[in-house]
Design a protein that fits this description.
Structural class: mainly alpha
Radius of gyration: 19 Å
Strand content: under 5%
Distance between the termini: 28 Å
Helix content: 55-70%
Largest sheet: none
Shape: globular
Length: 200
Amino acid sequence: MMPWGHLVIGYLIYSAGLHLWSQRSPAGGPTLVLAFATQFPDLLDKPLNWWFGILDGRGIGHSFLTMVPFCVAAYLVARRYDRGPLGAAFGVGVISHLPMDALGALLTGTVPERAPYLLWPLFPAPTYPKDSFWDHFEVLLATLQLLPWNSPVELVSILLGPELLFLLVPFSVWAYDGFPGVKTTVHLLTGGRLVENEPM
């Protein structure tokens, strides 16, 4: 799944959870932590692979056996410093990432064969073709070159057609919640600090 897909799914889960259990919308601080956390497994595993040759892009950061204890520990540390909501948002963001990268394997019950990284180190991490950040960038450039730039209508339909509903739903939920994270970002950029009950 692409980064924005992880962000969307993580936010929808987090917002729904807060509305169901606390009858409130997400606050700004936890929303920003959540946004970072939805990318955390890739931010951990990809550089380990690209720069140090450790595993193959999915391993330590994509395993329930490593990430669940890590998130529990992060929550307990955050709660100790009266930042429990930030720790909870981090946990939701990280854990929501893992099944989305292996949805097909989970639905078909073929995790050991198709997504062994979910249970690393009980199962070995998969061996993907060796790549790097630049390999991914070259693929992106090649994909962009194939788009019909000379036909604006076709270009918009390709870029937005299948994705429009996928983007419209989370944007509507974010709007309903009061766009949490926007004011907090401005606050941080002007020298404030991140707290769990930061205004939207």
